[in-house]
């Protein structure tokens, strides 16, 4: 049996499952959740920024413009470039805070 990881978003209380080797953003999208805006999906645009409050994860390459070392040290990462190694508690930035217009 493949171990999966539960990702819980603190503001909404919603949670979703993430497979090993799957990015948090991909898991979120596959389950129809929209916690963060989505841009390039490659770590360059900075739109899918989240803060990891608890749990272990690995990071892929991320733009240092959007995630400088001091932000990374505070748990700020891009959902498209983190891969859980345990269950995670995350905090999503409100979509309006990053300038996305909603209809």
From TrEMBL:
Q: What taxonomic lineage is listed for the species of origin?
A: Bacteria, Pseudomonadati, Pseudomonadota, Gammaproteobacteria, Pseudomonadales
Tell me which Pfam families the record gives. Fer2
Q: What is this protein called?
A: Ferredoxin
Domain 2Fe-2S ferredoxin-type: where? 3-96
Species whose genome carries this gene: Marinobacter mobilis
UniProt GO MF annotations: 2 iron, 2 sulfur cluster binding
């Amino acid at each position: 049996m493949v171990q999966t990881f539960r990702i819980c978003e603190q503001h909404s209380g919603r949670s979703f499952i993430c497979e090993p080797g799957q990015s948090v953003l991909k898991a979120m999208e596959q389950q129809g959740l929209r916690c963060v805006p989505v841009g390039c999906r490659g770590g360059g645009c900075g739109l899918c920024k989240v803060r990891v409050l608890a749990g272990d994860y690995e990071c892929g390459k991320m733009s240092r413009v959007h995630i400088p070392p001091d932000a990374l040290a505070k748990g700020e990462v891009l959902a498209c470039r983190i891969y859980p190694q345990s269950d995670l508690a995350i905090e999503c930035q409100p979509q309006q805070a990053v300038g996305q217009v909603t209809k």
